[in-house]
Design goal:
Structural class: mainly alpha
Oligomer: single chain
Largest sheet: none
Helix content: over 70%
Number of helices: 75
Number of strands: 0
């Protein structure tokens, strides 16, 4: 400690030190804030002053003077000074320096007037006292003090027992035992006792003992004996009474002794009146505290052993030994335990209401040790009864209950009775805490406490209190929760099954928020059972009993087992349910019997069950995935389905479970959505399954009644109550929208956040689960929430997407019901306002209401996409697409009829049923009739609605597609933003998308190209299929199936096609830049060409399917198999495509059998279904006009691949465009076809017939080589002829193709027909314009066209590059092909597009290409309708810019045509005859090779299946080619190519010589066909060579 007296003060003592010291002492004396600190500081100041004197720094008189001044500052200053002298006395006596001792004695002598000598005698050493002269001799002083101490502490007072007289005691007993009812008071008796003591020389202690004995026998006279003993004690020493009582207790402490309760009572009363101290008495009682603690520990150990025994598996032999040991132990236990006097006293204290002393005794024992003894627990319960009585009578007694009032304790020192909840907290709650689980001994008190809790909660939840009261109430509430946790629930566990208590407790619990309840259950389950030995035993017994019941639970004995479960659950629900749930997680076949057996539970138990389920779900130790990491664990699936069943069947609160799912989603975990899915499915009856039949899907597009009757697998009945409960839980806790938004956001979270480490298969499953649950949950909200509730909760579409980041498809899904509600309510308002019943008025009102509701939506959606999106499609169109459903587009009449018929059958069955009682019959029939009426009414209502919607769409359609860029771009946007996202959203949406496309077509929507749309959908499905999850693939398959259904319907019948597509703008093949969709018949795609296009689409689907199957990728294979299974009704229709698929799928079956069993199962399933469809497949030439039957025999075997589809594209669009051609072109074409037929036949038949039937030219026999050489000279002649002859008609062109395929007779007829048709078309154009004819100019024009063709190709390519990645690969293929062909393919398309007159050469080129198309599939495959249409637009704009020489108009060309028309006809007929002869000859030559080829080509197909390069070589190439054949073919090709090279050089020379462009073109074409053959056979290396040579020619 720092010195309080600085050295300067001592040095300058007289000047200022003295005053400083006095002020310091005054300050220290006045500072009373810290009393103890001030006291110490004064001691230190005085000590330092005295020490300076001892050391000689200050004179003793100076010190005594200043001490004289200071002594008055405090009353205890002399005592402080004496303490200081005492310390210094000890210190100086130890010092050797005598001077210091002298200074000390002088100081004390100088201060004697300040401290009394008695104080100094107490504190100083006797030697010091002697030196100071305060005592004479120190030795005498010491002896005297020893004598006094001995007398005080060790001498006993003796009474002369011999002088006592017995009569005195007799009189004493008579005095105390007399009738005390009169005016006798304790004072009077006390005087008599005193007299007796004096008279008979009685020992006062024995007298006191006798008074206590008599009091024991007369306990009712408390008011007499207590004052008597109190007065008597004034004569005795205070400890006497305690000693006597202690002696009495000692007397009973031998093992056989039993302390009488009267003694306990007397001791208790004396304690209560403070006549003795508990501490003094407690030491006299047995057993000691250590013994009690030991016993408590032993009890805990025993309890744990019992638990161990119950959980151990004991073999039968061991069981008998165990039982014997237990019997012995029980016998030992029956020996009576020694008396516990402390507990006896405690019981007595509680009975008389002395809570303070009782509490202090219990505090010295282990917790709940005392109350574990039943008498004490009951005594304490009785005390609580008394304490809470007034409050319970006021607020707790139920209405109409009489109750039995409890009288208060007679003594005034008992605890105060509770009149308010505050009093309850102070006294009763404390008592209850000491009771703990042993409140179970008094169920009535348990019920009273619970009722008081209920009354308090009512008060707590009413809001009218002040702030201070609120704080008090909060404290009370937390106390109530503690009592519930520590007393009520543990006590319930120890009660024998008491359902009433459980229900009573639920009355209070249901007023708590579920968070508090679950917290209490958690404590109860996980902590309470471990805190008391009794509860440990009970837990073990409950588990044992639960095991016994669960082992025997089956469907047959649900009732008796259910009763046992009920009994067990009343007391220990947490333990029981924990065990039951653990069993359900292992054995899911237990779910149904367990759910049925839970019907005997109380409300509290159901609530506990909900908690236990959530706890089981949240168990951090359990893995949510199986070990293979690809599937969700079965325990989670079992729990989820148990949840669904149990929540549906019983009235359990759902809030906790729903909040748990929401919290899991917030944490980015989507596994637990499985639970929500099951709960919604079972409670609301809304199924989400991908396995829906088309009938069910159709029913789902009707009204609510039809959905319920025909839309689900199970008949959904009685979900009204459960779905109402689910709805209330969602609304009360505001979970409806949050869950939707969390699920919508979590879909992407599954992939990008959750799915990082997980197996792709699992990620897909989780994504599907998340998505399905969203769809299901949204469906539930839409059908169960009222319009107001829905609109109040769901924000506008832009807020959903931009603020909540909800994906657009999900946002519209949530908003859709809102728009429908809105529109119908507005419509109803308008109807009420004006009562015009005309249909037109109604429609007008409906359209008005739509505009009112949808206008804000149109504005809102603009923010969802970039501004350039709205150049192609209008916000109105976008919103309309996303806001409508199948219900709005079509009425499922067949579904309604089906359900009505079912009901009729049902009614008939009821009539026929003889056993059914008549009243039940009547009821059932009424039900069926009512349902039938409902369905018919619903159908009528839907029909009206659909008509109104269609009227609305008719009005809107003109503003839908703006087409500010290109129609192709419009279709891209439509597919990208509307169709693709929605068609995989749900099965109904898939159907909706297909219907919507058809609807847009039927409405003749401007700027909408149906052809393009369908083409883009079918053209390359690889990318879309590969990026789907399993369920999305299923939905995408449904979408394709519906699209194919429409296409197949059009394809099946010319009449239907003409009616539904004939003059619709969607089937225009020329897309005019102006956006004018003219109905010019020449621009329409005719029926036959449409069939070609459909064949091309089928080919594309096959190609994509084969590609996916060959990747080896799990997702690709699985998804394509799912899609193929879905589209099976409409695809494959063509035999060769079907066979190609079948082989590929068969290969998958073989490969995956061991590796991936799920793929194997899928493939086997599809394979079986595909085989069953085989009889319905047709040869290619029946699907669209193609080969003649003569070849078909061979063709059928070879036409295995998607190869046959090669020709349609270019063919379709070529023929279509040719129809626009002028008469001149017609003539030229005819002429050309005559000239070219031979050439092509050479080229084609060089690959003998097989080429026509999709054979690969490379597989041909040696004959081909010879033929090649012979034909080269022939070709040159043909070229010369061609230069002379004008072009032939498009029909001839077609014939060039078909002519190969058909028998001779047919061919001639065909030509005539074709001619007639073509003549009709150009006539109208001839009449329109008559201009001068210049043949020269037209020829020049033709040569220029070649240039434009090449340029248009480049523009087309540019266009293609812009297209989405989906088409990019196909585009690449096309380009590579084009390069190989020397730019041959695209020019055709270009020339066809251009409005520029087409030249002889271009026509002949086209003609040849057609033929080639038959031989070489690939180019045409890759040039999709879309591509050609794109090019159309671009090139028509660009031709004029690109040409250096001015081009002629169509009119001029037509004039030129007129001249040549007649000539050309004659020539063409002659040519045809020659050609036919040639062909016959060739057929004979090559019949042998024909037979060989089919096998080769089939092998080849297998090889080439997935590869882009090879599959494009020939029409017949199914996507496969065999490597063995390739080697053989290489040899053949070497010889062949050498022949061809010669031919090439000759041709090259000829080309140089020839002056006209047409000659060049035709030669170029011929070379092409030859080269193509070569390319087919030689493969990649030679392709490069040909590529170079074709470039040269170009």
């Amino acid at each position: 400690m720092a010195a309080l007296l600085p050295a300067e003060w001592i040095k300058n003592w007289e000047k200022g030190g003295k005053n400083e010291f006095v002020q310091l002492c005054r300050a220290l004396s006045e500072n009373k804030s810290h009393d103890n600190m001030g006291f110490r500081d004064i001691q230190q100041a005085l000590y330092e002053l005295a020490y300076h004197v001892v050391r000689g720094n200050l004179k003793h008189d100076q010190a005594s003077n200043v001490l004289g001044d200071v002594i008055e500052f405090r009353e205890d200053m002399p005592s402080i000074l004496a303490d200081v002298f005492c310390i210094l006395d000890i210190e100086t006596s130890c010092l050797e320096e005598k001077s210091k001792r002298d200074h000390f004695t002088q100081l004390v002598l100088a201060c004697l007037y300040l401290v009394s000598d008695t104080v100094l005698k107490e504190r100083l050493d006797p030697d010091t006292l002697e030196s100071l002269g305060l005592i004479k001799q120190s030795q005498q002083f010491n002896q005297k003090s020893v004598k006094i101490k001995t007398k005080l502490f060790y001498k006993q007072q003796k009474f002369n027992l011999l002088r006592e007289e017995n009569e005195g005691y007799a009189k004493l007993i008579a005095e105390l035992g007399q009738d005390l009812s009169g005016n006798i008071t304790s004072d009077l008796i006390l005087e008599n006792i005193k007299s007796l003591i004096g008279c008979f020389n009685l020992d006062p202690n024995r007298v006191l003992d006798i008074i206590l004995e008599v009091y024991e026998c007369r306990p009712e006279y408390d008011d007499f004996f207590v004052p008597l003993i109190e007065s008597y004690m004034y004569m005795c020493e205070p400890q006497t009474l305690c000693h006597i009582l202690g002696f009495k207790f000692k007397f009973y402490q031998d093992p056989s002794g039993e302390t009488p309760s009267s003694l306990y009572r007397v001791a208790a009363v004396l304690l209560q009146h403070n006549l003795i101290d508990l501490e003094d008495l407690y030491v006299h009682l047995l057993p000691g505290d250590n013994a009690i603690i030991e016993e408590h520990k032993r009890e805990i150990v025993e309890a744990k052993q019992i638990v161990r025994k119950l959980t151990m598996v004991v073999l039968s032999s061991e069981k008998t030994e165990e039982k014997e040991k237990e019997k012995e132990k029980e016998e030992e236990k029956t020996e009576k335990p020694p008396d516990n006097q402390k507990l006896g006293l405690l019981e007595a204290l509680l009975k008389i209401g002395d809570w303070q002393h009782a509490q202090s005794i219990m505090d010295q024992m282990p917790p709940f040790y005392a109350t574990s003894h039943k008498p004490i627990a009951i005594a304490l319960c009785q005390l609580v009864h008394v304490t809470i009585e007034p409050l319970y009578r006021r607020v707790g007694v139920p209405k109409g209950a009489k109750g039995s009032p409890i009288s208060s304790l007679p003594n005034k020192r008992a605890p105060k009775q509770a009149d308010s909840f505050e009093d309850l907290r102070k006294e009763a709650f404390n008592m209850l805490c000491y009771l703990g689980p042993h409140l179970s001994h008094d169920p009535i008190l348990f019920a009273k406490v619970v009722r008081l809790g209920k009354a308090f909660m009512k008060e707590f939840q009413s809001d009218g209190s002040k702030q201070e009261d609120k704080e008090k109430m909060e404290i009370l509430f937390s106390c109530l929760l503690s009592i519930t946790d520590q007393v009520l629930l543990p006590s319930l566990s120890l009660m024998d099954c008491n359902a009433c208590m459980s229900e009573e407790l639920w009355g209070m619990f249901k007023t708590f928020p579920y968070q508090y309840r679950y917290r209490l259950y958690g404590q109860w389950k996980n902590e309470t059972y471990n805190s008391h030995p009794l509860l440990v035993k009970v837990k073990a017994q409950t588990i044992d009993r639960a095991k016994y019941i669960m082992k025997r639970l089956t469907k047959e004995n649900v009732k008796p087992s259910g009763r046992q479960i009920g009994k067990l659950s009343h007391s220990n629900p947490t333990i029981l349910f924990d065990y039951i749930l653990s069993q359900i997680q292992k054995y899911d076949n237990l779910i149904t019997p367990v759910v049925d057996s839970l019907k005997y539970l109380t409300s509290l138990n159901y609530d506990v069950l909900a908690y236990c389920i959530i706890e089981a779900l949240a168990n951090p130790e359990k893995e949510r995935m199986k070990h293979d990491d690809t599937t969700i664990s079965s325990w989670l699936q079992s729990l989820a389905s148990f949840c669904g069943a149990v929540f549906r069947k019983y009235p359990i609160e759902l809030a906790g479970l729903l909040q748990y799912v929401a919290n899991q989603l917030k944490a980015g975990k989507s596994f637990d959505l499985l639970i929500l899915k099951e709960v919604v499915q079972k409670m609301a009856g809304i199924e989400i399954t991908e396995e829906m039949t088309m009938e069910q899907l159709e029913a789902m597009t009707g009204g609510e009644q039809l959905k319920a009757e025909g839309g689900y697998f199970g008949q959904i009945r009685n979900t009204k109550k459960s779905s109402q409960r689910l709805k209330d839980a969602l609304l009360d806790h505001d979970l409806a929208l949050p869950l939707c938004l969390l699920m919508a956001q979590q879909r992407n979270g599954v992939i990008f956040q959750e799915g990082g480490e997980k197996h792709l298969k699992l990620v897909g499953k989780l994504y599907d689960q998340c998505h399905d649950t969203l769809v299901q949950f949204g469906g539930f909200l839409a059908s169960n929430l009222s319009t107001e509730d829905y609109i109040k909760r769901v924000p506008s579409i832009d807020v959903l997407c931009n603020e909540f980041h909800t994906p657009h498809d999900a946002a519209f899904f949530l908003s859709r019901p809102m728009y429908a509600h809105h529109i119908s309510s507005k419509y109803d308002e308008l109807k009420k306002a004006e009562k015009g019943n005309k249909q037109q008025h109604k429609v007008h009102k409906y359209i008005t209401s739509c505009e009112l509701v949808m206008a804000p939506v149109h504005d809102a959606v603009i923010s969802l996409h970039l501004p350039k999106v709205w150049d192609d499609i209008s916000p109105q169109f976008y919103a309309t697409f996303w806001s409508l459903t199948m219900y709005d587009l079509a009425v499922p009449h067949s579904s309604y009829d089906r359900e009505v018929n079912k009901l009729k059958v049902q009614m008939k069955a009821i009539d026929d049923n003889q056993e059914m009682p008549p009243n039940k019959k009547k009821k059932e029939k009424e039900r069926c009739t009512a349902l039938q009426d409902k369905l018919l009414e619903e159908e009528k209502k839907q029909l009206e609605h659909v008509q109104r919607v269609l009227q609305r769409l008719k009005l809107e359609k003109d503003n839908w597609l703006l087409a500010k860029s290109t129609k192709n771009e419009t279709i891209t946007k439509f597919l990208q933003l509307c169709i693709f996202p929605r068609c995989i959203f749900s099965a109904i949406d898939a159907v909706y998308c297909a219907h919507f496309v058809e609807l847009v077509h039927q409405q003749k929507t401007p700027n909408f190209s149906t052809l393009l749309c369908y083409d883009r959908v079918f053209s390359d499905i690889i990318y879309t299929v590969a990026s789907c999850t399993e369920n999305e693939a299923s939905r995408y398959g449904r979408f394709l199936c519906c699209m194919l259904e429409t296409v197949t319907r059009w394809h099946s019948d010319r009449v239907i096609y003409e009616k539904e597509c004939g003059n619709y703008p969607g089937f225009l093949t020329i897309l005019r830049a102006t956006g004018f969709d003219g109905g010019n018949k020449a621009d329409q795609l005719d029926y036959e060409n449409f069939r070609h296009v459909v064949h091309k689409w089928h080919y594309k689907l096959t190609k994509a399917s084969v590609h996916c199957l060959e990747t080896g990728e799990y997702t690709h294979i699985r998804n394509i198999l799912i899609v193929l299974t879905k589209i099976l009704p409409w695809y494959p229709k063509v035999l060769n495509l079907g066979q190609a698929l079948e082989r590929r799928v068969h290969k998958i079956c073989q490969e995956e059998k061991e590796k991936r069993p799920d793929l194997y199962a899928l493939a086997m399933g599809y394979s079986g279904q595909l085989k069953s469809r085989k009889p319905f497949m047709i040869p290619e030439n029946e699907f669209h006009h193609k080969d003649p039957p003569a070849r078909n025999a061979v063709a059928a075997t070879v036409q295995n691949g998607p190869g046959g589809a090669g020709m349609p594209t270019s063919l379709t669009i070529n023929t279509v465009r040719l129809e626009e051609g002028t008469t001149e072109e017609t003539d030229k074409l005819k002429e050309k076809s005559q000239g070219v037929v031979k050439v092509i036949n050479k080229a084609v038949n060089a690959t003998p017939k097989v080429a026509t039937s999709n054979g690969n030219s490379a597989s041909n026999s040696k004959i081909i080589k010879e033929k090649d050489d012979k034909e080269k000279s022939g070709k040159e002649k043909d070229k010369e002829k061609k230069e002379k002859t004008p072009a032939a008609t498009p029909e001839m062109k077609a014939l060039g193709k078909e002519g190969k395929d058909k028998p001779k007779e047919e061919r001639a007829n065909k030509d005539d027909k074709a001619r007639e048709i073509k003549e009709k078309t150009p006539k109208s154009e001839k009449e329109k314009e008559k201009v001068k004819k210049e043949e020269k100019a037209s020829k020049e024009e033709k040569s220029k066209t070649v240039v434009t063709i090449i340029e248009s190709k480049s523009t087309a390519e540019k266009e293609r590059e812009k297209e989405p990645s989906r088409e990019r690969d196909v585009a690449k293929e096309i380009k590579s092909k084009e390069n190989a062909k020397g730019g041959e393919k695209m020019p055709v398309a270009g020339s066809l597009k251009s409005p520029v007159p087409r030249s002889e050469t271009s026509e002949s080129e086209r003609e040849q290409k057609r033929r080639k198309v038959d031989t070489h599939s690939s180019p045409s495959h890759s040039s999709t309708v879309k591509d050609n249409l794109n090019e159309l637009k671009d090139s028509s704009a660009k031709h004029y810019i690109n040409h250096t020489t001015p081009t002629l108009s169509k009119s001029k060309e037509r004039e030129v045509d007129k001249k040549d028309l007649d000539k050309s006809r004659e020539r063409s007929r002659e040519r045809e005859k020659k050609d036919e002869k040639d062909r016959k000859d060739r057929k004979r030559d090559h019949s042998n090779s024909d037979r060989e080829v089919p096998q080769d080509s089939t092998k080849r197909r297998k090889e080439e299946n997935g590869t882009t390069g090879s599959s494009k070589h020939s029409k017949s190439e199914s996507p496969s080619d065999s490597p063995r054949l390739n080697e053989k073919e290489k040899e053949k090709n070497k010889s062949k190519s050498s022949g061809k090279e010669k031919g090439d050089s000759i041709k090259a020379e000829k080309m140089e010589k020839s002056s006209s462009g047409s000659k060049k073109e035709s030669r170029h074409d011929k070379e092409k066909t030859e080269k193509k053959e070569k390319r087919d056979s030689t493969g990649g290396k030679e392709e490069k060579k040909h590529h170079k040579s074709s470039d040269k020619h170009r």
